[in-house]
From TrEMBL:
Catalysed conversion reaction: hydrogencarbonate + H(+) = CO2 + H2O
SUPFAM superfamilies listed in its UniProt record: Carbonic anhydrase
Keywords: Lyase, Metal-binding, Signal, Zinc
Full protein name: carbonic anhydrase
PROSITE patterns documented for this protein: ALPHA_CA_2
CDD domains according to UniProt: alpha_CA_prokaryotic_like
EC number: 4.2.1.1
Length: 243
């Protein structure tokens, strides 16, 4: 029983760290932005495997990567504005299988502009799908969004009515979570961290190559609600990015 309780607490702690909490201690402004996060958690300043990173496509390491096996069967539960991002909580069975393990989708959230960059260029929007396995280890699937005319009905259901800061809303429409991902799921992989304090490391990062598209009005609605909430790219150090 003690072991089960300890495991539950470990998983809950990791998930809470992966979801940026509403806090006045840190933000993205001049006085509380990423340059100051080391005052909250030393790992943000001293960590050697920090996220996000710039993915230079001429410096990738070829590897025989396993395909990402998504099984999203659940639904969106609610949408939260925690003061740092728009976070979408989910319910039901939503799993990602990789490395012979099942990772359960806990939530996804957005950053404007993107945090990870490709060849030094950011996308206007990036979504992070945060998964955890039974040990509390995290796997984050990053989806880049480009501005385009094609409207995503699933994304529109989420973006249409966004909560004010520190507020939560419950969606009335069903959202097919699988439709939020691009059809082709080839990806870049690297070992990284949370992109917000406490910047804990040991996170599997899976950045999908193909972008999704978002109309200008949806993008504007998200960006005006969240503001710019992207941590600058961090040094790669001794890490490799796999393709």
């Amino acid at each position: 029983m003690k072991t089960a309780i300890k495991l539950t607490l470990t998983i809950s702690t990791m998930i809470s760290m992966a979801a940026p909490a509403y806090s006045a201690q840190w933000g993205y402004g001049e006085g509380d932005g990423p340059a100051t996060w080391g005052n909250i958690s030393a790992t943000c300043e001293q960590g050697q495997n920090q996220s996000p990173v710039d993915i230079e496509t001429n410096k990738l390491t070829s590897a025989k990567k396993q395909p990402l096996a998504f099984d999203y069967q659940g639904q969106v539960k609610d949408v939260i504005n925690n003061g740092h991002t728009i976070q979408v909580n989910v319910s039901g069975k939503n799993t990602l299988r990789i490395d012979g393990q099942d990772f359960e989708l806990k939530q996804f959230h957005f950053h404007t502009p993107s945090e990870n960059t490709i060849n030094g260029k950011s996308a206007p929007l990036e979504a992070h799908f945060v998964h955890a396995n039974e040990k509390g280890q995290l796997a984050v699937v990053a989806v880049m969004y480009r501005e385009g005319e094609r409207e995503s009905a699933q994304l529109n259901s989420i973006v249409h009515t966004l909560p004010a800061k520190a507020q939560t809303i419950t969606l009335e429409k069903e959202v097919n979570l699988g439709d939020l991902l691009p059809r082709v799921k080839d990806y870049y992989r690297y070992n990284g961290s949370l992109t917000t304090p406490p910047c804990s490391e040991g996170v599997r990062w899976l950045v999908l190559r193909d972008p999704q598209f978002i109309p200008k009005n949806q993008l504007k609605r998200l960006s005006s609600t969240m503001g710019e909430n992207a941590r600058p790219t961090q040094a790669l150090n001794a890490r490799l990015i796999l393709e």
